[in-house]
Design goal:
The chain is an alpha/beta fold and 376 residues long. It is 42% helix and 9% strand. The strands form 3 sheets. Strands 1-2-3-4-9 form a 5-stranded mixed beta sheet. A two-stranded parallel ribbon has the order 5-8. A two-stranded antiparallel ribbon has the order 6-7. Helix 4 crosses helix 5 and helix 5 crosses helix 6. The radius of gyration is 21 Å and the shape is globular. The N and C termini lie far apart (45 Å). The relative contact order is 0.13.
Length: 376
């Protein structure tokens, strides 16, 4: 160290190194991910890559500005995001092409593209989808998980045809199956007085995870062995659900309580499923509730300055009306946690969450971290 360097300067440099230090384990993870040949995504709008664009009567679409303002070529692809979403960033980290939406692969002229995508990965997710078929508010608005599984069987046939039965099974056993769903089922319960009269929060969340268990078994029976399953985030902290008539805009406690109940039931169900399937299934449960809570609690630590309002929208917290071409748009999307009123993360937030997923920090992932899962 030069003798004339002030001690204060050295101290500030040291603090800077601490501040921008990466989340532990990210560098080591990079090499291990390359052994995964394909990623297959099921879920809702948090990971939809544009399937809803192909639903003629659906209003749940993100194929118009300001969506996609930071996506390559500033294209609104149907993602509910300013840029790439969680599934896209996962594909990047694994060194794989972005998983195309399943419905974009249909048609006689697309068989070659369909067979190629069947190997590296396909995205079946749909905005508004739920574990229960009726989780979207109106018929034809989304592709529920039950229908996504039928689409997967079609891709499974294409994969088997291309690789042959034996090689297809080997391929699937090494691939990753990502499932991000459950929020719409819970929001449907909050909206529906009929559902709330029919069952308590505990009974309802248990019925959701019971259905989910059967659906996961269906995927596993086709040869899937490795699952990344995300819990539900703090639904009460999305801009739309925050209290509007206060200066602090507190999170909605009822919605957060329901998400917490669901996550507890989900964790228990996954443990039971693992006990039943033994070595023919391995999984990582990622705690979205805690990860979003930690970002909201210490936004500056993760590079954010606004974790309450939507980047795109209008009204109080930019949360009273959806993200439309005429909506307010924040100038620096990297500083916002939420893209729109409905809690969809910005690309910056999606990248931060993926960093959590890939870290070796077991406070977020159990019973295996993702790098342990793909290496197993």
């Amino acid at each position: 160290m030069p003798a004339n360097m002030p001690l204060l300067t050295v101290f500030l440099l040291f603090l800077g190194l601490l501040w921008f230090a990466p989340i532990p384990g990210l560098e080591a993870a990079a090499g291990k991910l390359a052994s995964t040949p394909g990623v297959y995504v099921f879920g809702d709008s948090l990971v939809d890559a544009g399937n809803n664009n192909y639903l003629p009567f659906s209003l749940a679409k993100g194929n118009y500005p300001h969506n996609g303002v930071d996506f390559p070529k500033k294209k609104a692809t149907g993602r509910f995001c300013n840029g790439k979403n969680f599934a896209d960033v996962i594909a990047e980290k694994f060194g794989l092409p972005l998983m195309p939406p399943y419905l974009s692969l249909r048609g006689l002229l697309k068989w070659k593209k369909r067979e190629s995508a069947a190997v590296t990965g396909v995205n079946f997710a749909s905005g508004g989808a739920g574990i229960f078929d009726g989780s979207s508010q109106f018929p034809g608005q989304a592709i529920p998980l039950s229908q996504q599984l039928k689409h997967w069987l079609s891709v499974h046939k294409a994969l088997t045809r291309k690789l042959g039965p034996s090689n297809a099974q080997i391929h699937l056993s090494k691939s990753l199956f990502v499932v991000v769903i459950g929020s719409n089922d819970l929001l449907n319960y909050i909206r529906s007085s009929m559902l709330r009269k029919k069952s308590s929060p505990q009974q309802y969340t248990q019925s959701v995870v019971d259905r989910f268990k059967a659906q996961l078994k269906t995927i596993q029976e086709t040869g899937a062995r490795k699952f990344l399953i995300l819990g539900v985030a703090q639904l009460g902290c999305m801009p739309r659900r925050r209290e509007k008539n206060s200066t602090t805009h507190e999170c909605n406690k009822e919605a957060n309580m329901l998400a917490s109940l669901y996550n507890k039931a989900l964790i228990k169900m996954l443990q039971q499923l693992k006990e039943e399937l033994k070595s023919s299934m391995a999984y990582t449960y990622f705690d979205m509730f805690k990860s979003v809570h930690d970002i909201i609690s210490k936004p500056a630590h993760y590079g954010f300055s606004d974790v309450t309002s939507a980047c795109c929208g209008s009204g109080v917290l930019n949360a009273e009306f959806p993200c439309f071409p005429v909506s307010n748009l924040c100038s620096d999307r990297t500083k916002y946690l939420f893209w729109d009123p409905y809690g969809h993360p910005t690309e910056a937030a999606a990248r931060t969450i993926v960093d959590f997923v890939l870290s070796e920090d077991t406070q977020y992932s159990s019973p295996l971290t993702l790098t342990q899962l793909v290496s197993s």
